Amino acid sequence: MINKIALMTTLLVMACIGLLMFLAFHYYGQTVSQAASLSTLTQQKKEAEFIVQSQGLSVGIFNQIAGATLNDQQTNQTASQRRQTIIKRVLQTAPCNLVPVAAAANDSLLNHYNAVRQSSRNTDTLRSARAVPAVSTAQ
């Protein structure tokens, strides 16, 4: 009878040790897989943060470029309006078909056109960006 009790106790202790080993290896495997998953998710989070920061910087740069472009457009429009006012005053005294365009007005418009073409490099790829040759004014 003592042998049966000792044998049952030994088997019970061995079963407990086996169960504990199974649980230990089972949860160790889960821990390792969760650590790998956590590492992957952390890397993906860092990549997403980098992409968001890059996009934020790109948007900031594009906004600066757009602001500078708008300022240049406003400056060109103001300068153009001033030139138009001066030319209209010069041409108001007589009809255009009877009076030739003044050389100063022609040169002013030509210089303005060439300055705009030079400041905006290769805006139209179908046309060259070289300056327009001067046109002689009518006498």
From TrEMBL:
Name this protein carries in UniProt: DUF2570 domain-containing protein
